[in-house]
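Worked example 2:
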Amino acid sequence: MKATSFLLVAVAMMLGSACSSSTTTTGTTGSSTAGSTVTDDASSGMTSGASTSPGSSSSTSDVSGTGTNTVGAAGSSGAAGSSATMGGIGGAADMNAFVATFATMDDPTFLMTAASSNMLEIQLGQMATQQSTDADVKKYGQMMKDHHTKATQELKTVAAPLNVTLPTTLMPVHQALADKVMGKTGKAFDEAYMDAMETAHRMDIAMFEAKTKQASTPSVKALATKTLPMLNSHQKMADDIEKKVD
């Protein structure tokens, strides 16, 4: 009897142990959506939120991280278009990741990004007219102010009918470029400013070229087509002046 009791106890213990070890924790695998967040080296992510159906409005995080932008998704449908909030730049890989979004960037996001780029050109152009020690850099800065102020007005006329609220502060991707110029003086300022202009226009050209091919709204495509030659001219001038001040 004692042997039988011991055997029953042992079996019960073994069964209890087996039941405990067989319990598994099942992780929930989320499907890949347009709302995924990718964190870059600078701990600032690039977030894509799916756009809404035509004519509706979707609320997305403000590109500056300080408020909310309401983006009217007219001209885009379902997940075919996405509104992206661009994160900061941690290096060349992150810049390439940002540029890689241009091929699928929806019209509202394009308009917001172009508006932020215009603000960068105007703000740094103003700094160049005041702080540069080089006549060509000063002249280039003034041209950036003039041309991109006009470009901003044209952008607003396209954005308004689409119910796109343009940002009032720089996107992180553009703020990162501005930060590289801030605090510099003399020749160091000239070099940093022209480097920023080369980079900014290189990104703009890639983005506007993509929009000339796949814009979903005729007015956006027309704006991209009209603006592209100006950006190419700015890029060439930036390259020439950068070689001089480097």
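The CA atoms of residues 74 and 108 lie 9 Å apart. The helical segments are 2-22, 92-100, 107-131, 135-159, 172-179, 186-214, 218-245.
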